[in-house]
Design a protein that fits this description.
Radius of gyration: 27 Å
Structural class: alpha/beta
Shape: globular
Number of domains: 3
Low-confidence stretches: 1-7
Strand content: 15-25%
Amino acid sequence: MRVTTGRGPSPSEVRSWQRSLPALARDLADAGLGKVELLVEYKLPLTSKRADVVLAGVHPRTGEDSYVVVELKQWSRAEPSDRGEHLVIVDGMPGRDLLNPAEQVRRYCEYMSDFLSVLKDRPRSVHGAAYLHNAMDLDVDGLYDQVRDERSRLFTKQRRGDFLDYLRERLADKPGAEAADRLLSSPVAPSKQLMAYAADEIREREQFTLLDEQQVAYELVMRAVDKARRADFKQVVIVTGGPGSGKSVIALSLLGELYRQGRTALHATGSQSFTQTMRRYPGRGSTRIKNLFMYFNSFVDAEQNGIDVLICDEAHRIRETSTSRFTPAAKRTGRSQLDELMAAARVPVFLLDEHQVVRPGELGTVHAIEQYAQSRGYAVNRVSLDEQFRCGGSRKYERWVLHLLGLEGSGPAPWTGDEDFEVRLAHSPQELEAALLAKPGTARMTAGFCWPWSDPRPDDSLVNDVVIGDWSRPWNVKKDRAVGDAPPSMLWATEPSGFGQVGCVYTAQGFEYDWSGVIIGPDLSVRDGRLVTVREANRDPAFKNRKAVPDADFDHLARNVYKVLLTRGMRGTVIYAVDPVLRDFLARHILT
């Protein structure tokens, strides 16, 4: 486990194995299935999820490979929850709703059938059962109501005999090592069944109208797919565009159309917030659709050209390598993340905005992608999205921001107004917040990372870390679980309860809302008529090490951070600067 996951088992996992695995081993022996292969803590492809046990062997009637996924539960008592169709409440785990293990194992089976090539034409060779070996029927009354099919069977210790019969019907007492090897070595690729399902769910549910260069990019990718398949040829497509230019709309349109045509495709990003939101909305109500949305580091072991298209959205967040400090030495291949992404598909598509590189180690630039592709002999096509759809369609505002921050042009220019987009300077954070509350539609407050970021208090409340005079508010939630009424970090930009917390660039990037309130922290000031960065005022841990992040890199990244924050609004932006010199400077440059 340490080799495959980078960590050893926790004490609770060890206790679980000690209590559950011997029980399952006895059942296999009593069922006369001693030759069946057990794959313990089987890792599902392209995800960190693990099934407790997969039994691999030979089907007693067909003689073909047969697999039974088993979820082992030590629960002694559980009952359905009224908070969700497939949720249960378990004794000894107060305050937590868990997924019914019958539904859990059904989804594991479905996922394996969707993504493992060895199961491509034999989805019925995978079966699933939840085994509550400490519970009697009355202890889990109501859980059986959710058993839907042969992949979601549920057994208690009272039904041990039925469980043994279930295993004998699906596994013969023959060696299962070869079946296990075929499963473990199977190439990973979406199945035809999943492609048909995705086409209906994405293409039919969401109707996108692509305009001008968006349609150009779309058709360029579709043509590249045809050419790559006919000529066994790899082609890289790079789509660049500013905030709101429609990059993600292109991505979803491609995903739906490719699946409708029977092509294989996946969507990937380097942002937890962005990926989780894509899973929540385009994939709403469907676990299978959610599984199409991956992370850049999901392709470490992907098969060469295993899929037709890999859509790398927010590609400016590509990192040098997929490994981290938690990656075990045996897994450190030294392979670049760009190489992994390009190798995984015949047509890798990169959608990016170079001005959104905001962290050290992010190298998703047009130059880096083109240079690497050309070094491997891959053809490269590039499309620039000229239209602007965020910021009220105001290219004027986007250019003003770029010039203000010194990212383009010869220096700051005055903002003289745009009938499609409102820019307003606030003289206090109270005024900024009040202005947002008075606006119709959605609104969020963001800030530069210039204040500490505390963990929640024991009473499940957030600490008001962003303190400016007598005004204070908390940062958005750090992690992927709600704290009180505050949503988890990846839903801060999309859930109404996100207002009232101050978002950082890592939760705001990739999202949009009607009205954006931006607090420019003391890490930006003015010298000789131009903005300068003040490293000492920045609290982002990513910038702490001056050796790893030289001052010149910090300067560029900090400006990109504010570029991202200032371009989230679709109808307008309200700006407050903590530094009084910068505040006066902005007042002279915002003339409306």
